[in-house]
Design brief:
- The structure is a single chain.
- By secondary structure, the chain is of the alpha/beta class.
- 39% of the residues lie in helices and 16% in strands.
- It has one domain: HUPs (Rossmann fold), CATH 3.40.50.
- Strand 1, helix 2 and strand 2 form a beta-alpha-beta unit.
- The longest helix is centred in the C-terminal third of the chain and has 15 residues.
- The radius of gyration is 17 Å and the shape is globular.
């Protein structure tokens, strides 16, 4: 396979199925409608702070909490996400829910843990999504499956920390989470809050700018 073709494909299918490796893998799920620099920022923050081997972007066919209106085709979202991830070897972009009976995160994580029993998984999410966790299907059961790393986002710090106090039994520093993840000493449910430089990119804002540009280009 040519080098360029291999580079393009390496983000498509990490060697996850039937894997027995003990990789530390961060899972960042979402619609990626579209993927943007904020997703890169969150991924790199988690990678640096938690010492992860890889970050997987799990592109959802359809988020159950979002309207299908304005949702781009899955193939386009996957292609755009892979193009955005291409410069970073640690990023892998997949859509495992395409082959699953449902697109609920709990079921997806159960599938991944069964498929990769030796992997050490941690869920990564932006602070803006933390307060929505109680709306997720079987969210309490989900929190018993893997730890959560919340990455700070502009204007959501207090809201995320407040939600975390109610959702999780124990909070670790990112340094402690890194150690316990490596040693398999985590007691769940558990989370860490990673602050630092924040990124303002928003998929909603990107779509709105695009739509505004289309309107402005229409002839009068």
């Amino acid at each position: 396979m040519a080098k360029s073709a291999a580079s393009a494909c390496r983000h498509h299918s990490p060697r996850l199925f039937h894997s027995r490796t003990a990789l530390k893998i961060g899972l960042l799920g979402g619609s990626f409608n579209p993927a943007h620099d904020g997703h890169i920022h969150i991924s790199l923050q988690a990678h640096r702070q938690l010492g992860l081997d890889q970050i997987w972007w799990l592109v959802s066919p359809q988020n159950p909490l979002k309207s299908p209106k304005d949702m781009a085709d899955l193939n386009k979202r996957l292609a755009d996400a892979r193009a955005k991830a291409a410069p970073y070897r640690l990023l892998k972009v997949i859509a495992p829910e395409v082959n699953l009976p449902s697109n609920f995160t709990y079921n997806t994580i159960k599938h991944l843990k069964k498929t990769m029993p030796s992997a050490r998984l941690i869920w990564i999410m932006g602070a803006d999504n933390t307060a929505q966790l109680p709306q997720w299907r079987r969210y309490r059961d989900l929190l018993s499956l893997l730890p959560i790393a919340v990455i700070d986002r502009p204007s959501y710090s207090y809201q995320a920390i407040s939600a975390g106090l109610h959702l999780f039994r124990r909070r670790y520093t990112s340094k402690k989470m890194r150690h316990k993840l490596a040693c398999r000493q985590l007691q769940l449910p558990a989370w860490c809050f990673i602050n630092g430089q924040r990124h303002h990119a928003s998929a909603t804002a990107i779509r709105q700018r695009h739509q505004t540009g289309i309107v402005q280009q229409k002839p009068h």
